[in-house]
Amino acid sequence: RLMPGMSLRLEPLPGLERGTRLHVRGPNVMLGYLMPDAPGILNTPPDGEYDTGDIVEVDENGYICIIGRVRRFARIAGEMVSLSAVEELAARTWPAHAHGGTALPNEGHGEQVVLATDNPDANRQTLQEEARRSGISELIVPHKVVVVAAIPLLGSGKTDYTRLDEMVAESLGATAAAAEEV
Hints:
The chain is of the alpha+beta class. Helix content is about 25%, strand content about 30%. It contains 3 helices and 11 strands; from the N terminus they run ββββββββαββαβα. The chain has helices at about 85-95, 125-135, 160-180, and strands at about 5-10, 20-25, 35, 40-45, 50-60, 65-70, 75, 80, 100-105, 110-115, 145. The chain has a 4-stranded antiparallel sheet, with no helix packed on it. The N and C termini lie far apart (about 60 Å).
């Protein structure tokens, strides 16, 4: 629950079935950011309200349950697709391997979901079959599957999504360049 003196605002996100985006304000919320391109100038949150970037559900007693992060969703055809759900589908399909989902721009269609995996035999068709068998929406099936030597990890053991995004972009860029040469 929120600490005394704090307030929240919940912002619905179109295409998201569960949860809302959490904004908070209160005496313990930071005053703003100092940006390297404007030294000494405080960049304050609009109206003193901080956008946490969290997708939450709040129950009738005021308990807040974080169910995801905005940046861990992709917008596809007006729907919000959980990248964690994409990873769960891959883990269900190939439990002995590591996987990471990411979203890349898709001209005219918002974003496309790409699954990075260390499974050399991974393919989109197998994921589609598992989704159908499990009754999972086809939106969860990634647009592309990229095989990597290893999913990058942070010191904490969690996936390094910044590095993963770079690896996927590099891989797809190399694939597109090779296709253009043919």
